Structures are given as structure tokens and as C-alpha cells.
Amino acid sequence: MTGRRRTRSPFHRTPRGPARSAARVAAALAAGASLVAGCGVVPGTDGTGGTVTVMTWAPSGTSGTNKPGMPAFAQAYARWINAHGGLGGRKLEVLTCNERNDSVAAAKCARTAVKRDVVAVVGSYSLYGDSYLPTLEGAGIPYIGGYGATNAELTSPLSYPVNGGQPTLLAGLGRELAAGCGPVVLVRPDTIGGDELPPMLDSGLKARGHAAAVDERAADDTTEYAVPSTRALTAASARPGEKGCVIPALGDSTGTFMDSFRRARQKFPAVRTAATLGNVDQTAINASGGASGPYEGAFVTGWYPDASDARWAGMKKVIKEQAFDDNRIDPADAGVQTTWIAYTVLKAVVASLGGGEVTSATVRRALNGGLAVTTGDLTPTLKWGFQGELASIGLSRLVNAEVTLQVVRDGRLVPARKGFTDVTDTLRDAKVN
Q1: Which terminus has fewer CB within 10 Å in the chain: N or C?
Q2: Are 113 and 141 in contact (CB under 8 A)?
Q3: What is the CATH architecture assignment of 42-164+310-400?
């Protein structure tokens, strides 16, 4: 389709692709190590008692998905940790960058990170992994706790994800919907990142004997969705007597889609809706009418426990002490939650180094060397090896395939069941090529 920026997807590469990527990174790291050894300068930190410099980026003020709470929370975390003795006595400095939902801006953020000698990029959001990851790989800078916006984060040797990205959310949602839905329709962005979504949803549906979803592509930056809404409703109600399900996955534009969907659905038989957290949250449910809106009864998959869970107390303490009046930071936002977990990982890495220097190289070595990070049961224990269990489908860095299931009941997003569901086995059968 014209007007789409085509780049190589991690699922459209030759079998030798991952090996070439690892070799490229290894060569770049070796070259970087030689330069450091030659000039005697170690970037990113002043050593024990010095400063640890990292970067967090996310889009803000755009017509598409915006995540201003992520860099805002990162700076609040820096103020909080520094007020409590820093990272093992070291001051934490957080640089931020507006990624602007743009590949050029994403690449510029990465170049700035390299120029400023950060030890890691932490808790960030971008749809353009192919634009920023090569730059970080070339400089040997680890990417810790990305939002999981694209599958590139689950393949790069220097990426250390804390969640399973959209693959796990969609696989888990597919498993749940298979038994109770007629035709399932996925409404997703007509973008490279959007191309990665259908196989993951289909893996969950097919695991429970359901047909693949209808793939409805739509722009993610338009002001109305009358045509995609009508197409989705037509497909979802194609089999009389079976209530279909519509899954909007358009990021911040999901609310705009649902405005059109509400108007169009009056002309069609009743259908269910479902979503993944990040596309729909409590704010979106309230804005769409609460208990009388289109999400009532909808299942929503997430990566983490419900925002009211006591396990978020640490994050909420940071917000209360350092960002109480910052309305960019929503403790129920999956982006803010991911940033909290990512900085929890960073803190654990620095602690593991003791009095040693904190550099991009030492951070990498700690993460690659078997460091196990606990997150207060917000995730399973995180530990990154050379390849994860889903390397066979290209997701070599995915180490957390657990999801939670919530449901909209009386207009409130509440847990549908206790605990996590592991979708590793479901994703093993995903048709990603």
C-alpha cells in the first residue's frame, strides 16, 4: 500500500539474520572496547560516588500515541533515588528525549544517547526499533525495559525487555476469546509495527481451535474511523447467531476509533469488544461511557497486576514524594509501570557491581552474566541469557511471557482471575513468517 514506510521486520529475514546481528554487535563492542582502552576514558560514570547517566525517551505532543509519563516518571525517579542516597552512593542523571513518533527523531535520540555517553537507555517507548537499535548496538549501549512497542525489542542482542510486548498480550487475548467469540476482527495500524500483530493474536485463537482473525488495517493518526468501523462490524457479524468480537489496537487513536465505532454499531447486531492494555485503560473506559459504553464486559490483557494492587506501593511512593502534581504521570499507565520496572532493573544492576565502575560495558556484562532481577512480584524473576525460549520464532530476547487478564465490570477494570498466565507454549506455534 502506498504511503507506508517499509523497513525490514524482524520476522522477514533470512535464517542467518540473527547470527549476522549478533556478529555485528560483537564486532562493534570489540571496537568500542579498543577505543576505551586506548584513550583511558570510561564513559557514562565518574566511578563510585560519581554520576550514572542514562536516557529515557518517548513520544509527546504528537497526533499518534503519546507517552509523556514515561520520561516524566524517569526524572521523578532520579529525584527520589538521589534524595535517598542515589544508586549505591552514585547520583543518577536522567536525560530525556522526545521521540515524536518519528523514525528520524528516534534515530536522533539514539545518537544523542551515544554522544552523551549514557550507560543505558531505560524504560523507553518507540515504534522505530530499526532506527534506534543499530545506533545503540554500535555503541554498545543496552536498551533496558523498552515498552514492547515492536518486536525489534525482543530480538536485539542489546535489548533487555521486562515484558513480552504485544506478542504476549495478543496471544493471551486470543486464548481467552476463542471459546466465546464468533468471528474475531483485529483493527490495527497500517504500519510495519502493525504488521507484526495478527500472527500473535492468531496463535492464541488457533491454540483453542478458533479460526484466524480478520485483519482490518487502519491509519493510526486520522481524526475519524467511519470506514474501518463499518468494515470491522460487518466482518464481526458475518455469521448469524454468533456474536463476533472486535479488538481495536491503535494505541492512543483507539479512543478516536471507538467514537466512530459507537455511531456505526447501531446498524449492526451486537458484538463484543476486547483489547490489550496500552490500547485501553480505565481513562479510556470512562471516556467511552463507563458501564454503558462499548467496553462493558470486555476482556483486557496486561503485563502487570492491576494498578490498585499493593505491589505498586513503591512506584506510588515515588510519585507521591516527587511528582504528586504532575498530571503526565498516571500510575495506571502501562508505560509508567514499565519505566518503574526498568529502573528497578537498573538499580539491581548497579548494586551488583558493588564499588566497580558503572559503564555501558559493565552493565551489559552484569545483565548477560546471569544476573537475576526480582521486581516485587510485578513480573517473574527476570534473567537474560543469549537466547530465550521463543528464539525459534525470532523472539530471542523475550524472557517474560506472562500476562494478566482483566475485565470491564460495571464500568471498572478489575481482575478477571488471580495471577498470571504464561503464553510461552502458545507463542511457540505462532506463524510469524
Answers
A1: N
A2: yes
A3: 3-Layer(aba) Sandwich (3.40)
